[in-house]
Amino acid sequence: MTASPTPLVIAIDGPSGSGKSSVSRAVAQRLNLAYLDTGAMFRALTWWCVHRGIDLEDQHAVAQAAKDLPLDMSTDPNSPSIQVDGVPIDEAIRATAISRLVSKVAINLGVRDELCSRQRALIAESIKTNGGVVAEGRDITTVVAPDAHVRILLSANQGARLARRAKELHGEADHAAVTATHDQIVRRDRDDSTVSQFMHAAPGVTLVDTSDLNLRQSVEAVLEVVRSKRAGAPE
Q1: What are phi and psi of 19, to 5 degrees?
Q2: What is the pLDDT at residue 175?
Q3: CA-to-CA distance for 193 and 190, rounded, in angstroms?
Q4: SS3 118
């Protein structure tokens, strides 16, 4: 598939380990669209707060930090990158310490308002510069881009999600690795569910279950939804 001559916004939500980041990036590459990893924004803010010694329990201070955050994101799916105050933090925001803390930031409603505004701005910019975007996260289909041309909830059963994240973080998915990963997956999804609905497809959102699919198959499943939605779209 090639990029559509008309704007195309694809919103993809999903819980941890559903494959949404890898799948969304691959779909963006296939369609020559921009790629927006909204979760990276929350991780970047978490890193910034820790770096500056801001108490994550101080919701007002963290919300203010979100407004002041000197964030620069590349939405090129071939080389996505993120910087804060000129410092590349692509690897730093994936550290276990940040993964353990990010929910404290993500459930802050003041933070969500600010970062959602930034996400909408990046989506609008991507439409102008790339003809569209694949935006992925936890409430993209319902809050950030409810009018997206294609809205998908990427899901998988807990066992599959734990195994994927364990292999990603520890290089294998044996019992010890899965156990070590359990908190990141289950606790974070539970915490984030208090402010964002991403475990069940909202009306108009297509569910794609990747439990038994590999990356290539998951990408093809999403592309098939895109084809179907675009075929039924008015000219």
Answers
A1: 95, 10
A2: 52
A3: 5
A4: helix
